[in-house]
Amino acid sequence: MFCNQCEESSKGLACTVAGVCGKKPRVAALQDVLLHVVKDLSIYADAARKAGTSDAEVNYFTDEALFATGTNVNFDPQRLQGLINRGIQLIDRLQAQTIQSGANLAGATATYQSNAELPDLIQLGEDLGHVTNGAADVDIRSLQQVVVYGIKGVAAYAHHARLLGQEDEQIYEYIHRALAALADKDLELNEWLDLVLECGKVNLRVMELLDTANTTAFGHPTPTSVPLGHRAGRCILISGHDLQDLFRLLEQTEGKGIYVYTHGEMLPAHGYPELKKFKHFYGHYGTAWQNQKKEFAQFPGAILVTTNCIQQPQSSYADNIFTTGPVAWPGVEHVTNDDFGPVIARALALPGYESDKDRGQVMVGFAHQAVLGVADQIIEAVKKGDIRHFLLVGGCDGSRSGRNYYTELVEKTPADTVVLTLACGKFRFFDKQLGDIGGIPRLLDVGQCNDAYSAIQIAVALAQAFQCGVNDLPLSMILSWYEQKAVSILLTLLYLGIKDIRLGPTLPAFISPGVLEVLVKTYGLKPITTPEQDLADILG
Ligand code: SF4
Ligand code: SF4
Q1: Residue 450 C-alpha to ligand 2 middle, in angstroms?
Q2: In a domain, 179, yes or no
Q3: Which atom of ligand 1 is nearest to the CA of 18?
Q4: Are 33 and 180 part of one and the same domain?
Q5: Ligand 1 atom with the shortest distance to the CA of 19
Q6: Within this chain, do residues 232 and 289 fall inside the same structural domain, yes or no?
Protein backbone atom coordinates (compact mmCIF):
# COMPACT_ATOMS: atom_id res chain seq x y z
CA MET A 1 0.00 0.00 0.00
CA PHE A 2 0.99 3.62 -0.39
CA CYS A 3 -0.94 6.40 1.32
CA ASN A 4 0.42 9.82 2.23
CA GLN A 5 -2.79 11.84 2.28
CA CYS A 6 -2.89 12.89 5.94
CA GLU A 7 -0.67 14.57 8.48
CA GLU A 8 -0.07 11.34 10.39
CA SER A 9 1.42 9.40 7.48
CA SER A 10 4.06 7.01 8.76
CA LYS A 11 7.49 8.59 9.46
CA GLY A 12 6.20 11.78 7.85
CA LEU A 13 6.49 10.05 4.45
CA ALA A 14 3.74 7.52 3.73
CA CYS A 15 1.98 4.52 5.21
CA THR A 16 3.26 1.51 3.28
CA VAL A 17 2.72 -1.43 5.64
CA ALA A 18 -0.51 -0.42 7.41
CA GLY A 19 -2.19 2.89 8.04
CA VAL A 20 -1.43 4.80 11.22
CA CYS A 21 -5.20 5.48 11.07
CA GLY A 22 -5.93 1.74 11.16
CA LYS A 23 -6.36 1.31 7.40
CA LYS A 24 -5.41 -2.23 6.36
CA PRO A 25 -3.52 -2.84 3.08
CA ARG A 26 -6.58 -4.53 1.50
CA VAL A 27 -8.72 -1.47 2.29
CA ALA A 28 -5.99 0.76 0.85
CA ALA A 29 -5.97 -1.40 -2.31
CA LEU A 30 -9.75 -1.12 -2.65
CA GLN A 31 -9.57 2.65 -2.18
CA ASP A 32 -6.90 2.75 -4.90
CA VAL A 33 -9.21 0.86 -7.27
CA LEU A 34 -12.07 3.18 -6.40
CA LEU A 35 -9.92 6.24 -7.14
CA HIS A 36 -8.89 4.78 -10.51
CA VAL A 37 -12.55 4.07 -11.26
CA VAL A 38 -13.49 7.68 -10.39
CA LYS A 39 -10.57 8.98 -12.47
CA ASP A 40 -11.63 6.88 -15.49
CA LEU A 41 -15.28 7.80 -14.97
CA SER A 42 -14.12 11.44 -14.92
CA ILE A 43 -12.52 11.02 -18.35
CA TYR A 44 -15.90 9.97 -19.76
CA ALA A 45 -17.87 12.50 -17.70
CA ASP A 46 -15.57 15.32 -18.85
CA ALA A 47 -15.93 14.23 -22.48
CA ALA A 48 -19.71 13.88 -22.13
CA ARG A 49 -19.96 17.35 -20.58
CA LYS A 50 -17.91 18.84 -23.41
CA ALA A 51 -20.41 17.19 -25.76
CA GLY A 52 -23.24 18.88 -23.82
CA THR A 53 -24.41 16.28 -21.26
CA SER A 54 -24.05 16.11 -17.51
CA ASP A 55 -25.28 13.01 -15.69
CA ALA A 56 -26.64 13.69 -12.19
CA GLU A 57 -26.10 10.10 -11.04
CA VAL A 58 -22.46 10.26 -12.15
CA ASN A 59 -22.02 13.58 -10.31
CA TYR A 60 -23.49 12.22 -7.08
CA PHE A 61 -21.50 9.01 -7.31
CA THR A 62 -18.35 11.08 -7.78
CA ASP A 63 -18.68 13.00 -4.51
CA GLU A 64 -19.78 9.89 -2.59
CA ALA A 65 -16.90 7.75 -3.88
CA LEU A 66 -14.23 10.41 -3.33
CA PHE A 67 -15.52 11.07 0.18
CA ALA A 68 -15.25 7.32 0.91
CA THR A 69 -11.51 7.39 0.17
CA GLY A 70 -10.79 10.19 2.67
CA THR A 71 -9.02 9.69 5.97
CA ASN A 72 -11.05 7.95 8.70
CA VAL A 73 -14.17 7.54 6.57
CA ASN A 74 -14.76 4.10 5.08
CA PHE A 75 -12.85 1.06 6.32
CA ASP A 76 -15.39 -1.52 5.15
CA PRO A 77 -14.26 -3.73 2.22
CA GLN A 78 -17.82 -4.74 1.27
CA ARG A 79 -19.06 -1.17 1.07
CA LEU A 80 -15.99 -0.16 -0.97
CA GLN A 81 -16.65 -3.12 -3.28
CA GLY A 82 -20.23 -1.88 -3.73
CA LEU A 83 -18.98 1.59 -4.68
CA ILE A 84 -16.42 0.17 -7.14
CA ASN A 85 -19.07 -1.95 -8.87
CA ARG A 86 -21.47 1.00 -9.12
CA GLY A 87 -18.66 3.11 -10.61
CA ILE A 88 -17.88 0.41 -13.20
CA GLN A 89 -21.55 0.31 -14.22
CA LEU A 90 -21.50 4.10 -14.65
CA ILE A 91 -18.30 3.89 -16.72
CA ASP A 92 -20.00 1.34 -19.00
CA ARG A 93 -23.01 3.61 -19.36
CA LEU A 94 -20.99 6.76 -20.12
CA GLN A 95 -18.51 4.90 -22.32
CA ALA A 96 -21.26 3.96 -24.77
CA GLN A 97 -22.56 7.55 -24.88
CA THR A 98 -19.17 9.24 -25.21
CA ILE A 99 -17.81 6.87 -27.86
CA GLN A 100 -20.86 7.77 -29.97
CA SER A 101 -20.04 11.46 -29.46
CA GLY A 102 -16.56 10.92 -30.97
CA ALA A 103 -14.83 12.46 -27.91
CA ASN A 104 -11.12 12.00 -27.22
CA LEU A 105 -11.00 9.29 -24.57
CA ALA A 106 -7.26 8.72 -24.37
CA GLY A 107 -5.97 7.82 -20.94
CA ALA A 108 -8.67 5.57 -19.49
CA THR A 109 -6.20 3.09 -18.03
CA ALA A 110 -7.82 0.11 -16.45
CA THR A 111 -10.06 -2.63 -17.77
CA TYR A 112 -12.64 -3.46 -15.18
CA GLN A 113 -14.59 -6.62 -14.69
CA SER A 114 -18.23 -6.16 -13.72
CA ASN A 115 -19.24 -7.42 -10.26
CA ALA A 116 -15.70 -8.55 -9.45
CA GLU A 117 -15.04 -10.52 -6.26
CA LEU A 118 -13.15 -8.90 -3.39
CA PRO A 119 -9.84 -10.83 -3.82
CA ASP A 120 -9.75 -9.84 -7.50
CA LEU A 121 -10.40 -6.18 -6.68
CA ILE A 122 -7.71 -6.18 -3.99
CA GLN A 123 -5.23 -7.69 -6.47
CA LEU A 124 -6.24 -5.06 -9.04
CA GLY A 125 -5.64 -2.30 -6.47
CA GLU A 126 -2.20 -3.67 -5.68
CA ASP A 127 -1.38 -3.78 -9.40
CA LEU A 128 -2.70 -0.27 -10.13
CA GLY A 129 -1.24 1.44 -7.05
CA HIS A 130 -1.74 5.11 -6.27
CA VAL A 131 -3.68 7.12 -8.82
CA THR A 132 -0.71 9.49 -9.33
CA ASN A 133 1.78 6.68 -10.02
CA GLY A 134 2.02 7.58 -13.71
CA ALA A 135 3.82 10.91 -13.18
CA ALA A 136 7.60 10.58 -13.41
CA ASP A 137 8.38 14.20 -12.46
CA VAL A 138 8.47 14.52 -8.68
CA ASP A 139 7.02 18.06 -8.61
CA ILE A 140 4.20 17.19 -11.02
CA ARG A 141 3.40 14.10 -8.96
CA SER A 142 3.35 16.31 -5.85
CA LEU A 143 0.94 18.77 -7.48
CA GLN A 144 -1.25 15.92 -8.71
CA GLN A 145 -1.48 14.65 -5.14
CA VAL A 146 -2.37 18.15 -3.91
CA VAL A 147 -5.17 18.26 -6.51
CA VAL A 148 -6.47 14.77 -5.69
CA TYR A 149 -6.46 15.39 -1.92
CA GLY A 150 -7.93 18.88 -2.30
CA ILE A 151 -10.69 17.41 -4.48
CA LYS A 152 -11.48 14.86 -1.77
CA GLY A 153 -12.11 17.79 0.60
CA VAL A 154 -14.27 19.54 -2.00
CA ALA A 155 -16.24 16.31 -2.56
CA ALA A 156 -16.90 15.92 1.17
CA TYR A 157 -18.34 19.43 1.48
CA ALA A 158 -20.24 19.04 -1.82
CA HIS A 159 -21.81 15.85 -0.47
CA HIS A 160 -23.07 17.64 2.68
CA ALA A 161 -24.38 20.62 0.70
CA ARG A 162 -26.14 18.39 -1.85
CA LEU A 163 -27.98 16.46 0.85
CA LEU A 164 -29.45 19.79 1.95
CA GLY A 165 -30.43 20.73 -1.62
CA GLN A 166 -27.48 22.94 -2.62
CA GLU A 167 -25.32 22.01 -5.58
CA ASP A 168 -23.52 23.65 -8.46
CA GLU A 169 -22.64 22.02 -11.77
CA GLN A 170 -19.33 23.93 -11.91
CA ILE A 171 -18.05 21.88 -8.94
CA TYR A 172 -18.56 18.58 -10.75
CA GLU A 173 -17.22 20.11 -13.95
CA TYR A 174 -13.96 20.97 -12.17
CA ILE A 175 -13.67 17.62 -10.35
CA HIS A 176 -14.14 15.61 -13.54
CA ARG A 177 -11.84 17.84 -15.61
CA ALA A 178 -9.07 17.83 -12.99
CA LEU A 179 -9.23 14.07 -12.38
CA ALA A 180 -9.33 13.40 -16.12
CA ALA A 181 -6.15 15.51 -16.37
CA LEU A 182 -4.29 12.78 -14.41
CA ALA A 183 -4.32 10.80 -17.63
CA ASP A 184 -2.79 13.64 -19.64
CA LYS A 185 0.96 13.02 -19.71
CA ASP A 186 1.61 16.30 -21.57
CA LEU A 187 0.32 18.62 -18.84
CA GLU A 188 3.12 20.84 -17.55
CA LEU A 189 4.00 22.08 -14.08
CA ASN A 190 2.32 25.45 -14.51
CA GLU A 191 -0.86 23.82 -15.72
CA TRP A 192 -0.92 21.65 -12.60
CA LEU A 193 -0.30 24.75 -10.47
CA ASP A 194 -3.34 26.33 -12.14
CA LEU A 195 -5.44 23.26 -11.30
CA VAL A 196 -4.21 23.48 -7.69
CA LEU A 197 -5.37 27.10 -7.33
CA GLU A 198 -8.60 26.35 -9.17
CA CYS A 199 -9.27 23.67 -6.56
CA GLY A 200 -9.07 26.44 -3.94
CA LYS A 201 -11.51 28.55 -5.93
CA VAL A 202 -13.97 25.66 -6.31
CA ASN A 203 -13.64 24.88 -2.61
CA LEU A 204 -14.59 28.46 -1.74
CA ARG A 205 -17.75 28.01 -3.81
CA VAL A 206 -18.55 24.68 -2.20
CA MET A 207 -18.04 26.08 1.32
CA GLU A 208 -20.37 28.94 0.35
CA LEU A 209 -22.95 26.38 -0.82
CA LEU A 210 -22.64 24.46 2.43
CA ASP A 211 -23.00 27.68 4.43
CA THR A 212 -26.18 28.47 2.49
CA ALA A 213 -27.39 24.89 2.95
CA ASN A 214 -26.82 24.87 6.71
CA THR A 215 -28.15 28.38 7.40
CA THR A 216 -31.21 27.93 5.14
CA ALA A 217 -32.13 24.68 6.86
CA PHE A 218 -31.21 25.52 10.44
CA GLY A 219 -30.89 29.33 10.65
CA HIS A 220 -27.81 31.47 11.20
CA PRO A 221 -25.80 30.46 14.30
CA THR A 222 -26.10 32.79 17.27
CA PRO A 223 -23.79 32.97 20.31
CA THR A 224 -24.78 30.05 22.51
CA SER A 225 -23.50 28.67 25.79
CA VAL A 226 -22.99 24.89 25.65
CA PRO A 227 -22.76 22.81 28.85
CA LEU A 228 -19.82 20.40 29.09
CA GLY A 229 -21.48 18.35 31.82
CA HIS A 230 -24.49 16.05 31.65
CA ARG A 231 -28.02 15.46 32.85
CA ALA A 232 -29.32 12.32 34.55
CA GLY A 233 -30.94 10.12 31.93
CA ARG A 234 -30.46 8.05 28.80
CA CYS A 235 -28.13 9.55 26.20
CA ILE A 236 -26.91 9.51 22.61
CA LEU A 237 -23.61 10.99 21.43
CA ILE A 238 -23.41 12.24 17.85
CA SER A 239 -20.14 13.00 16.08
CA GLY A 240 -19.11 14.23 12.64
CA HIS A 241 -20.26 17.04 10.37
CA ASP A 242 -23.77 16.15 9.26
CA LEU A 243 -26.28 18.62 10.72
CA GLN A 244 -29.13 16.96 8.81
CA ASP A 245 -28.46 13.66 10.58
CA LEU A 246 -28.45 15.52 13.90
CA PHE A 247 -31.77 17.17 13.07
CA ARG A 248 -33.40 13.84 12.18
CA LEU A 249 -31.98 12.25 15.33
CA LEU A 250 -33.39 15.10 17.46
CA GLU A 251 -36.81 14.70 15.83
CA GLN A 252 -36.80 10.95 16.42
CA THR A 253 -35.63 11.14 20.05
CA GLU A 254 -38.02 13.91 21.12
CA GLY A 255 -40.16 12.85 24.08
CA LYS A 256 -38.27 9.58 24.58
CA GLY A 257 -36.35 10.63 27.70
CA ILE A 258 -33.02 10.69 25.86
CA TYR A 259 -30.55 13.60 25.96
CA VAL A 260 -28.45 14.18 22.85
CA TYR A 261 -24.81 15.30 23.20
CA THR A 262 -22.32 16.35 20.54
CA HIS A 263 -18.76 15.10 20.11
CA GLY A 264 -15.89 16.55 18.06
CA GLU A 265 -16.83 18.57 14.96
CA MET A 266 -20.53 18.48 15.88
CA LEU A 267 -20.03 21.02 18.73
CA PRO A 268 -20.91 24.12 16.60
CA ALA A 269 -24.35 22.59 15.88
CA HIS A 270 -25.49 24.02 19.24
CA GLY A 271 -25.45 27.52 17.72
CA TYR A 272 -28.10 26.83 15.04
CA PRO A 273 -31.63 28.00 16.02
CA GLU A 274 -33.47 25.08 14.40
CA LEU A 275 -31.28 22.59 16.25
CA LYS A 276 -31.02 24.24 19.64
CA LYS A 277 -34.82 24.58 19.86
CA PHE A 278 -34.94 20.90 20.88
CA LYS A 279 -34.96 20.84 24.70
CA HIS A 280 -33.25 17.44 24.86
CA PHE A 281 -30.29 18.65 22.75
CA TYR A 282 -28.27 19.20 25.89
CA GLY A 283 -24.52 19.64 25.71
CA HIS A 284 -21.09 18.63 24.44
CA TYR A 285 -19.10 15.60 25.56
CA GLY A 286 -15.37 15.02 25.09
CA THR A 287 -12.92 16.59 22.69
CA ALA A 288 -11.67 15.79 19.18
CA TRP A 289 -11.72 12.68 16.98
CA GLN A 290 -8.36 11.23 18.07
CA ASN A 291 -9.58 10.85 21.68
CA GLN A 292 -12.68 8.87 20.80
CA LYS A 293 -11.36 5.46 21.90
CA LYS A 294 -10.97 6.73 25.46
CA GLU A 295 -13.99 9.04 25.47
CA PHE A 296 -16.48 6.72 23.73
CA ALA A 297 -15.53 3.94 26.15
CA GLN A 298 -16.71 6.11 29.06
CA PHE A 299 -19.97 7.29 27.48
CA PRO A 300 -22.95 5.46 29.00
CA GLY A 301 -25.20 5.61 25.93
CA ALA A 302 -25.37 4.98 22.18
CA ILE A 303 -22.96 6.67 19.77
CA LEU A 304 -23.70 7.75 16.20
CA VAL A 305 -20.81 8.65 13.87
CA THR A 306 -21.88 10.75 10.91
CA THR A 307 -19.39 11.50 8.13
CA ASN A 308 -15.75 11.03 8.95
CA CYS A 309 -13.25 10.60 11.77
CA ILE A 310 -14.12 7.09 12.92
CA GLN A 311 -11.38 5.20 14.72
CA GLN A 312 -11.26 1.45 15.26
CA PRO A 313 -14.09 0.79 17.76
CA GLN A 314 -12.90 -0.77 21.00
CA SER A 315 -14.62 -3.88 22.39
CA SER A 316 -15.90 -1.85 25.37
CA TYR A 317 -18.24 0.17 23.13
CA ALA A 318 -18.39 -1.86 19.89
CA ASP A 319 -22.04 -2.77 20.58
CA ASN A 320 -22.99 0.86 21.24
CA ILE A 321 -21.58 2.53 18.13
CA PHE A 322 -23.40 3.06 14.80
CA THR A 323 -22.35 4.64 11.52
CA THR A 324 -24.36 6.43 8.86
CA GLY A 325 -23.75 8.19 5.53
CA PRO A 326 -20.27 7.76 4.03
CA VAL A 327 -18.67 6.38 7.22
CA ALA A 328 -18.31 2.65 7.70
CA TRP A 329 -16.37 0.18 9.80
CA PRO A 330 -16.65 -3.58 9.27
CA GLY A 331 -18.96 -5.14 11.86
CA VAL A 332 -20.45 -1.81 12.99
CA GLU A 333 -24.20 -1.45 12.32
CA HIS A 334 -24.72 1.05 9.50
CA VAL A 335 -27.95 3.02 9.77
CA THR A 336 -29.63 4.03 6.51
CA ASN A 337 -32.57 6.12 5.27
CA ASP A 338 -32.43 8.47 8.27
CA ASP A 339 -33.94 5.73 10.43
CA PHE A 340 -32.19 6.03 13.78
CA GLY A 341 -34.44 3.43 15.46
CA PRO A 342 -31.52 1.04 16.18
CA VAL A 343 -29.51 3.87 17.81
CA ILE A 344 -32.48 4.89 19.94
CA ALA A 345 -33.18 1.28 20.95
CA ARG A 346 -29.57 0.87 22.06
CA ALA A 347 -29.65 4.14 24.04
CA LEU A 348 -32.80 2.98 25.85
CA ALA A 349 -31.11 -0.34 26.71
CA LEU A 350 -28.03 1.36 28.19
CA PRO A 351 -27.93 2.92 31.68
CA GLY A 352 -27.26 6.55 30.70
CA TYR A 353 -26.12 9.01 33.37
CA GLU A 354 -27.25 8.42 36.96
CA SER A 355 -27.11 12.05 38.05
CA ASP A 356 -26.61 15.61 36.82
CA LYS A 357 -23.03 16.89 36.57
CA ASP A 358 -21.85 20.46 35.95
CA ARG A 359 -18.51 20.78 34.12
CA GLY A 360 -18.74 24.38 33.01
CA GLN A 361 -19.58 25.58 29.54
CA VAL A 362 -18.17 26.93 26.29
CA MET A 363 -19.50 29.51 23.85
CA VAL A 364 -20.15 28.71 20.18
CA GLY A 365 -22.03 30.43 17.36
CA PHE A 366 -19.70 33.22 16.22
CA ALA A 367 -20.23 32.62 12.50
CA HIS A 368 -20.18 35.46 9.97
CA GLN A 369 -23.66 36.84 10.64
CA ALA A 370 -23.16 36.96 14.43
CA VAL A 371 -19.70 38.54 14.20
CA LEU A 372 -20.60 41.00 11.45
CA GLY A 373 -23.65 41.98 13.54
CA VAL A 374 -21.21 43.58 16.00
CA ALA A 375 -18.75 44.72 13.33
CA ASP A 376 -19.09 48.40 14.33
CA GLN A 377 -18.09 47.55 17.90
CA ILE A 378 -15.12 45.49 16.67
CA ILE A 379 -13.96 48.20 14.24
CA GLU A 380 -14.23 50.84 16.97
CA ALA A 381 -12.18 48.66 19.35
CA VAL A 382 -9.46 48.30 16.68
CA LYS A 383 -9.44 52.04 15.97
CA LYS A 384 -9.11 52.83 19.68
CA GLY A 385 -6.26 50.33 20.00
CA ASP A 386 -8.21 48.07 22.41
CA ILE A 387 -7.83 45.24 19.89
CA ARG A 388 -4.27 45.10 18.60
CA HIS A 389 -4.41 41.94 16.53
CA PHE A 390 -6.66 39.04 15.43
CA LEU A 391 -5.26 35.51 15.34
CA LEU A 392 -7.11 32.84 13.41
CA VAL A 393 -6.00 29.67 15.18
CA GLY A 394 -7.91 26.98 13.37
CA GLY A 395 -7.78 23.65 11.63
CA CYS A 396 -7.58 20.05 12.67
CA ASP A 397 -6.68 18.22 15.82
CA GLY A 398 -4.68 15.00 15.84
CA SER A 399 -2.47 12.72 17.88
CA ARG A 400 0.95 14.30 17.37
CA SER A 401 2.48 15.74 20.53
CA GLY A 402 3.53 18.90 18.64
CA ARG A 403 -0.09 20.03 18.64
CA ASN A 404 0.37 21.37 22.18
CA TYR A 405 1.86 24.33 20.33
CA TYR A 406 -1.67 25.57 19.61
CA THR A 407 -2.72 25.37 23.27
CA GLU A 408 0.35 27.25 24.41
CA LEU A 409 0.06 29.85 21.68
CA VAL A 410 -3.53 30.70 22.63
CA GLU A 411 -2.66 30.74 26.34
CA LYS A 412 0.16 33.19 25.63
CA THR A 413 -1.81 35.62 23.45
CA PRO A 414 -1.80 39.11 25.03
CA ALA A 415 -5.00 40.57 26.49
CA ASP A 416 -5.42 43.02 23.58
CA THR A 417 -5.72 40.25 20.96
CA VAL A 418 -8.75 38.30 19.75
CA VAL A 419 -8.54 34.62 18.81
CA LEU A 420 -10.88 33.38 16.08
CA THR A 421 -11.04 29.60 15.96
CA LEU A 422 -12.77 26.87 13.98
CA ALA A 423 -12.67 23.12 13.38
CA CYS A 424 -11.35 20.31 15.57
CA GLY A 425 -8.11 22.07 16.49
CA LYS A 426 -10.02 24.27 18.93
CA PHE A 427 -10.35 21.37 21.37
CA ARG A 428 -6.78 22.15 22.39
CA PHE A 429 -8.06 25.37 24.02
CA PHE A 430 -11.85 25.64 23.61
CA ASP A 431 -12.52 25.74 27.35
CA LYS A 432 -9.92 28.42 28.19
CA GLN A 433 -11.33 31.52 29.82
CA LEU A 434 -9.71 34.36 27.86
CA GLY A 435 -12.12 37.07 29.00
CA ASP A 436 -13.36 39.86 26.75
CA ILE A 437 -12.42 43.22 25.28
CA GLY A 438 -15.22 45.71 25.96
CA GLY A 439 -17.80 42.93 25.80
CA ILE A 440 -16.28 41.22 22.73
CA PRO A 441 -15.18 37.71 23.78
CA ARG A 442 -11.44 37.17 23.19
CA LEU A 443 -12.13 33.61 21.99
CA LEU A 444 -14.65 33.40 19.15
CA ASP A 445 -15.65 29.94 17.89
CA VAL A 446 -16.60 30.40 14.23
CA GLY A 447 -17.68 26.76 13.70
CA GLN A 448 -16.70 23.60 11.82
CA CYS A 449 -13.80 23.45 9.35
CA ASN A 450 -16.10 24.35 6.42
CA ASP A 451 -16.95 27.52 8.36
CA ALA A 452 -13.58 28.75 7.18
CA TYR A 453 -16.03 30.34 4.74
CA SER A 454 -17.36 32.42 7.67
CA ALA A 455 -13.85 33.40 8.74
CA ILE A 456 -13.13 34.53 5.17
CA GLN A 457 -16.33 36.61 5.12
CA ILE A 458 -15.34 38.23 8.42
CA ALA A 459 -11.84 39.01 7.14
CA VAL A 460 -13.16 40.44 3.85
CA ALA A 461 -15.69 42.64 5.71
CA LEU A 462 -12.97 43.95 8.05
CA ALA A 463 -10.72 44.68 5.07
CA GLN A 464 -13.53 46.63 3.41
CA ALA A 465 -14.17 48.59 6.62
CA PHE A 466 -10.50 49.53 6.91
CA GLN A 467 -10.20 50.07 3.13
CA CYS A 468 -7.28 47.69 2.81
CA GLY A 469 -6.52 44.20 1.58
CA VAL A 470 -6.93 41.13 3.82
CA ASN A 471 -3.13 40.81 3.93
CA ASP A 472 -2.91 44.35 5.37
CA LEU A 473 -5.27 43.64 8.28
CA PRO A 474 -3.92 43.08 11.78
CA LEU A 475 -4.78 39.41 11.24
CA SER A 476 -2.54 36.33 11.26
CA MET A 477 -3.47 32.77 10.40
CA ILE A 478 -1.93 29.94 12.36
CA LEU A 479 -3.38 26.71 11.01
CA SER A 480 -3.19 23.05 11.86
CA TRP A 481 -4.01 20.34 9.35
CA TYR A 482 -4.74 16.65 9.42
CA GLU A 483 -6.87 15.44 6.53
CA GLN A 484 -8.06 16.36 3.06
CA LYS A 485 -10.73 18.93 3.93
CA ALA A 486 -7.97 20.96 5.52
CA VAL A 487 -5.98 20.67 2.27
CA SER A 488 -8.89 22.12 0.30
CA ILE A 489 -9.25 25.00 2.79
CA LEU A 490 -5.55 25.81 2.56
CA LEU A 491 -5.88 25.90 -1.23
CA THR A 492 -8.80 28.34 -0.88
CA LEU A 493 -6.68 30.67 1.25
CA LEU A 494 -3.86 30.49 -1.30
CA TYR A 495 -6.32 31.10 -4.16
CA LEU A 496 -7.48 34.24 -2.29
CA GLY A 497 -3.85 35.37 -2.15
CA ILE A 498 -3.59 35.21 1.64
CA LYS A 499 0.04 35.34 2.66
CA ASP A 500 2.25 34.37 5.58
CA ILE A 501 0.07 31.49 6.79
CA ARG A 502 1.76 29.44 9.49
CA LEU A 503 1.08 25.71 9.12
CA GLY A 504 1.72 22.78 11.43
CA PRO A 505 2.32 20.60 13.21
CA THR A 506 4.29 19.29 10.20
CA LEU A 507 4.20 20.13 6.52
CA PRO A 508 2.43 17.68 4.17
CA ALA A 509 4.49 14.66 3.09
CA PHE A 510 3.11 15.06 -0.44
CA ILE A 511 4.64 18.51 -0.93
CA SER A 512 7.93 18.10 -2.83
CA PRO A 513 10.86 20.44 -2.07
CA GLY A 514 10.30 22.15 -5.44
CA VAL A 515 6.59 22.79 -4.76
CA LEU A 516 7.37 23.96 -1.23
CA GLU A 517 9.81 26.48 -2.63
CA VAL A 518 7.04 27.93 -4.82
CA LEU A 519 4.65 28.11 -1.86
CA VAL A 520 7.24 29.81 0.34
CA LYS A 521 8.34 32.29 -2.34
CA THR A 522 4.87 33.16 -3.65
CA TYR A 523 2.76 32.98 -0.50
CA GLY A 524 5.20 33.19 2.38
CA LEU A 525 3.82 29.88 3.71
CA LYS A 526 5.84 28.91 6.78
CA PRO A 527 5.99 26.09 9.30
CA ILE A 528 5.10 26.87 12.92
CA THR A 529 8.12 27.28 15.24
CA THR A 530 7.49 27.91 18.94
CA PRO A 531 4.54 29.82 20.41
CA GLU A 532 6.91 32.47 21.83
CA GLN A 533 8.82 32.95 18.59
CA ASP A 534 5.72 33.02 16.37
CA LEU A 535 3.87 35.45 18.66
CA ALA A 536 6.94 37.70 18.77
CA ASP A 537 7.15 37.65 14.95
CA ILE A 538 3.42 38.27 14.52
CA LEU A 539 3.00 41.01 17.11
CA GLY A 540 6.36 42.69 16.51
S1 SF4 B 1 -4.99 8.23 5.81
FE2 SF4 B 1 -3.11 8.93 6.84
S3 SF4 B 1 -2.71 7.46 8.49
FE4 SF4 B 1 -4.25 6.55 7.10
S5 SF4 B 1 -3.03 5.31 5.70
FE6 SF4 B 1 -3.27 7.32 4.74
S7 SF4 B 1 -1.48 8.54 5.35
FE8 SF4 B 1 -1.61 6.74 6.69
S1 SF4 C 1 -11.13 19.97 11.30
FE2 SF4 C 1 -9.74 18.64 10.21
S3 SF4 C 1 -9.88 16.66 11.23
FE4 SF4 C 1 -11.65 17.86 11.84
S5 SF4 C 1 -13.24 17.29 10.38
FE6 SF4 C 1 -12.28 19.14 9.58
S7 SF4 C 1 -10.67 18.44 8.23
FE8 SF4 C 1 -11.29 16.67 9.50
Answers
A1: 9
A2: yes
A3: 5
A4: yes
A5: 5
A6: yes
Over 90: is that where the pLDDT of 114 sits?
no
Q: Does residue 194 sit in the same domain as residue 257? A: no
Task: Evaluate whether residue 22 is within a structural domain.
Answer: yes
Could you tell me the sign of the dihedral formed by the alpha carbons of 161, 165, 166, 167, in that order?
positive
- CA-closest residue to ligand 2 atom 3: 396
**Biggest distance spanned by C-alpha atoms of the chain:** 70
Could you tell which of 4, 5, 16 is best to mutate to test the pocket of ligand 1, judged by most ligand atoms within 8 Å of the CB?
A: 5
State which H helix or E strand residue 529 sits in: none
Q: Quick check: 105 pLDDT over 80?
A: no
8 Å CB contact between 532 and 240: no
Which conformational region is residue 72 in: left (phi greater than 0), alpha (psi within -120 to 50 degrees), or beta?
left
CA distance 150 to 205: 13
Write out pLDDT tens, residues 273-309: 999 999 999 999 999 999 999 999 999 999 999 987 8
CA distance 464 to 482: 32
Each residue's pLDDT tens digit, 388-447: 999 999 999 999 888 999 999 999 999 999 999 999 999 999 999 999 999 999 999 999
CB burial string 396-419: b at 16+ within 10 A, e below: bbbebeebebbbebbeebeeebbb
Closest C-alpha among 217, 323, 322, 230 to residue 275: 217
Q: Which of 308, 303, 296, 352 is nearest to 332 (CA)?
A: 303
The H or E element that residue 392 is part of is strand 389-395
- Angle at alpha carbon of residue 487, lines to 485 and 492, rounded to 5°: 95
Rounded to the nearest angstrom, the distance between the alpha carbon of 75 and the centre of ligand 1 is 12
Number of domains in the chain: 3
Ligand positioned closest to the Cα atom of 489: 2
Mean pLDDT computed over 493-510 = 96
For residue 5, give the ligand 1 atom closest to its CA: 7
Note whether residue 49 is domain-resident.
yes
Tell me what the pLDDT averaged over the chain comes to: 95
User: Which numbered atom of ligand 1 lies nearest the CA of 71?
Assistant: 1
Residues counted in the chain: 540
Mutate to test the pocket of ligand 1, among 2, 7, 9, 11 (most ligand atoms within 8 A of CB): 9
